[in-house]
Specification:
Layout (H helix, E strand, L loop, with lengths): L1 H11 L46 H4 L11 E2 L44 E2 L11 E3 L1 H4 L7 H5 L6 E3 L9 E4 L2 E2 L6 E5 L2 E2 L22 E8 L13 E7 L5 E9 L3 E9 L7 E9 L8 E15 L2 E15 L4 E2 H6 L13 E14 L7 E17 L12 E23 L2 E23 L6 E25 L2 E18 L14 E19 L4 E12 L10 E2 L3 E12 L4 E19 L4 E19 L5 E14 L12 E13 L4 E12 L3 E2 L3 E2 L3 E12 L2 E8 L7 E7 L14 E6 L4 E9 L1
Parallel strand pairs: 7-10, 23-25
Antiparallel strand pairs: 1-2, 3-9, 4-5, 5-6, 7-8, 9-10, 11-12, 11-38, 12-13, 13-14, 14-15, 15-17, 16-37, 17-18, 18-19, 19-20, 20-21, 21-22, 22-23, 23-24, 24-26, 26-27, 27-28, 28-29, 29-30, 30-31, 31-34, 32-33, 34-35, 35-38, 36-37
Length: 764
Amino acid sequence: MLLIAFATLSTCLHAVPASAQEGPGLEATGHVVTEATPQQQQPGTQQPAASSSEPGTPPAEQQRLESPSASDSVASPAGQQPPEAPSTSEAVASPAEQPSPDAPPPTPPPEASGKQRSTVVRGTRPAQSASEVTLGRDILDTAPRTNATDVLRVVPGLVASQHSGEGKAQQLFLRGFDALHGQDVELNVGGLPVNEVSHIHALGYADTNFIIPELVQSLEVTEGSYRAFQGDFAVAGTVRMDLGAREKGVEFAGTLGQFNQRRLVVTVRPGEDPGTFAAAEIGESDGFGPQRGYGRAALLAQANMDLGHGLSARILGGSYVTRFDSPGVVREDDLEAGRSTFYSGSFPRQGGTVSRHQLLIGVDLPREGTARTRVEAFGILSDLRLRNNFTGYRVDDRGDGLEQTNGGSILGLRAEHRRQVTLFDRPVALELGLGGRRDGIHQTQRRYRETDGTFFADEVDADITQTDVWGYAEARLPLGRWAFRLGGRADALGVEVFDALAFRDSRYYDGQGYSRSAFGVHWGAKAGIEYALTDTWALFASYGDGFRSPQARSLSEGEQAPFVDVHGAELGTRKDGERLSFQASVFGSQVTDDFFFDHTVGTTVFTGETLRTGISAALQARPIEGVTAALSATVANATVTKTDAKLPYFAPLVARADIGWEKPLPGIGSVLSVGTGLTLIGPRPLPYDEFSHTVFLADAQAALRRGALALRLDVKNLLNTRWRDGEFVYSSRFDPTTQPSLVPARHFTAGSPRVASLTLEVHL
């Protein structure tokens, strides 16, 4: 009903005239960015935010131009030059400063260097809850970022664990949720969805290893489930990555490091627009211990194009392939007895291969007044073959090794429309979205012998077609110092499953294979209230319904597809500023009919209703020129409502600090930069009333650049801490000559020791 109401509202109400954008009191959501040439850029600095046009309205709303997505990047019209901007990488203009569409282009002042500059207009969704945050390139450059795990760790409160090799999707923890490999965190890269539905290894499987870290321009983080654009798996939050190349020209980066690490990245940016680029990565390593070697190659390319007549397009494509080994786990009692070392591998056949190929085509339609419309179509092909054995010979004397395969194809289409309308003589920012996604999946699971790797049992052989069609609407109405947000979202899910192994046993049915289908709808409400204390400081109250789609193979014929419903709420405050931005919130999430999947033994445990509560805070500071800092901490609790028992594996305390300093050295014509990334993870509850070890990690980097050459030293785990990346409690039998036992034991996967690497960059 909310969707119908807002759709009617959009068509019936007249749009605000373009000239009204310049009047006081209008909530203009504008963020105009002027990007200078590399000679004019000063990384790590920001321009002060312009004053709001209405007293008490947060600049986060006044200073952003709502565009269809955070990855929007549009070049200025030919021949039109912007006014001279300060020598910073960003200049923010208030709505009153934006020229009318009918006004003649401004006369550019003379450039000291005599070089022409271009303008890139970027849009981000305005922050409308206390915990939304955007992490820019200056923060990402403060600490070593050589893979996707390093990029994700900068997200406030997020733990990214890579305990099964360099090619498997990270295990994620956020806001009291053990999201496994993505079931509770929605991930999006440049507009491409990452989470895979009904995956054989884990629901919502999100493999981000195809990302080339040097291309991540910014991270747009929306924690909680309070915004209407958040879709499937946006239970604990949503992370969107915007892609872009750092500098115009060609950049070569070659890395050599310990454990025979070799990596080469080539990036090409032909013009001033950082959103038009092509980059390739090739990397390999023997790993820091047995069965940790890997090799991978990735290609990502994007083009922003002005098609004329107000029409623009964006194309993003890429390919990725990897082969990796996995060490498995070490039993704690084997380590104590000297039968294993800290970095031992358990069984030799573990590891896998992954490939991913993707294409997105987006079109921005000509702007009409305040209305903007974007249409995007995308396609993804992915394949996974994974072997692992976490229990040894506990189930079968031939071995408990599993080989899982998952081949997926995704076709999707979405449209987003934003405009400003008037209601009761007040401006209303309206956002509408429609979309559909079709996933075709073929998956198998077989058991193999540890002696020779041959298969002896088929457990899964299924073909799945899963279709999600959605629509959402969200409106924001400012009333003086107050602002009210109301929205809704509906997702309709249709599932078709063919199980080739059903009724295979002729004792029960004289045949093989069985088809079944299911259908369900999830309705979700979104709401928020804001109160502006000052121009830069506001209070927020947010509510939202999130959801997680079901595992298709678990559904029966004609079943109403049971979504996992999440009801979340948050109270908080945020202060935005040039030198200091701060956020703090108290949050809670109630999950009905929850479950967690113990991937070590392949068992889903249903818990009923669960409750997550906690507090979080994040800070971004640029106190003096050249210094950048991002600090965050999250304290969370997760319990089963009926018994008040703690859920296993969630992270109750996560703290992160990224601090960087950049200093020009005029005497030698160079720039020195140093930085560090610090991570603290408190003890996590484990099954059988046990707890994991506390983890503290320190990464550091130092770089010196002179002209076209730069040399960078990265050191991960600077203190050489012996830490456990993953810890589990369950029963296992690693020695087939011993008697089987169901007594639970501690297991762990070792985190990386100190690893140093040296990178030479050449900028042409």
